[in-house]
Amino acid sequence: MTDLAPINVVEMSVSELSVALKRSVEDAFGYVRVRGELGNVKYHSNGHVYLDLKDERACLAGVIWKSATPRIKVKLETGLEVVVTGRITTYPAQSKYQIVIESVEPAGLGALMALLEERKRRLAEEGLFDAAKKQPLPFLPEVIGVITSPSGAVIRDILHRLSDRFPRRVMVWPVRVQGEGSAEQVAAAISGLNGLPKLGVMPRPDLLIVARGGGSLEDLWSFNEEIVVRAAAASLIPLISAVGHETDVTLIDFAADQRAPTPTAAAEMAVPVRADLILIVQNLGRRGFGALRRALEAWRTQMRACIRGWPTAEGLLAVPRQRVDVASERLPRALRANAQLHLTQFCRTGARLGPQILQVRVVRDRERVAAAGERALRAARVVRERQRHRLEAAIARFQAGRRANVEAYGNRIRRDFERVAALGDRSQRAAAGLIGRHRAALERTAGLLTAYSYRGVLERGFALVRGRGGIPLRSAAAVSPGARLDIEFSDGRVAAVADATRPVDPEVSRGGRGPARTEQGNLFADTWGVRRDPERP
Question: Can you state the angle between helices 226-233 and 109-125, rounded to 10 degrees?
Answer without folding.
Answer: 30
